[in-house]
Structure formats: C-alpha cells, structure tokens
Amino acid sequence: MSRGKLSLAMLVGSGVALALGAFIPMEESGRRVEASMGQAGQLQIRHISGRQYLTAYLDMVGVPTACDGITTYQGRPILPGMKFTESQCAAMLEEELVKHAAAVMACTPGLALSGDPVIERRREGPRFAAVSLAYNIGPGRYCASTARARFNAFDYPTGCSAITWWNRAGGAVSRGLVARRAREAKVCREGLGALH
What we know:
Blueprint: H1 8-12, H2 14-29, E1 32-37, E2 43-49, E3 57-58, E4 64-65, E5 72-73, E6 76-77, H3 86-107, H4 117-137, H5 139-143, H6 146-152, H7 156-163, E7 168-169, E8 172-173, H8 175-190
Antiparallel strand pairs: 1-2, 3-4, 5-6, 7-8
Helix pairs in contact: 2-4, 3-4, 4-7, 4-8, 6-7, 7-8
C-alpha cells in the first residue's frame, strides 16, 4: 500500500473493516472467507469455501456481476464472460469497499471515527451496516436515504430500522434481501458481536 492511500481500516476502524471483509463475500456470493489485516493496513481475503465467481455472470436482475457483487470497476461496467483471478477479486473487493466506505463516511459524519472507545462501540454496528447497505444499493442511494439522515442525527436505533426498507430487487421484494437487511439491522443494533 502506497503512502497516503486510504485503507478500509482507516475509514471505518479495523474491527468494522475485518467484519465487512468477511460479511460481504458471504452476502454477495455465498462464500466463506478469512479476513485479516496486512502489515500496511490493507484488507487481505483468503477463500475458505463456497463458489467463487471468477467469471462474470448475470445477477438476479440481469446485471453483469463478478467476484463479490462487483458490477463496475474503476468506472467501467463488468461485462458478461469477463474473467478474474482470485487475487484480482480480493484486490477489487478491498478497492470497492474503500470506495463505498469513503462515500458513506463523507455523507454520514454522524458515524465518523471518534477515538473515544465508548462512542466507537456505539457507532461500530451502524457504521458496518451503512457500508454494507451502500455496497449493495450504491453510495448515491445510501446518501439520499432515511437511514443516513437518522445516523447523522445520532438516532442510531431508527437508522438501523430504516436499513430494512431496502429489500427490493427489480421492483419486487426479495426474500434474500429481506434476510440480508435483517442481518445488517441486527449488527447495526447489537454491534459486531452479533455476527458470531
């Protein structure tokens, strides 16, 4: 990692970064990974089990998707049939998480890292859920959401509830998204310990 380059841990804290590194692959592609931090603070992902999407495919609403839910990369859309290596997918995941976390933190100063351990414990769950939601729906939609407005007002409980409203794909309620939003809302309310 070059000097000056933001890491996910710098944006959201190391606990949230590690939790996102494990959660997003499980939610987006159903695979289990081990997430750790490299010496320079970069997120490192090691595949444990489950299918890896190293060739782009069409998701449930027909959007070309690769790796762990990536539909665009470095401003370019993923195209059907594109191929990636496991290490490329891991690097893309970290880069996309950093991009989404930076957008979330820019529009949600109510979730900012504070340095105060008591405040940090209270914000970790909402910060995790906000970045996970933004990764799934896009930063623009997240930044215009009621959840973001409530987090900025330090109303974390109702912000956590507002996350569950994002449960549609292609205009229809998706059982998978209902379940994912429930998991995110639980972590939002209870903290990172709710992941275990």
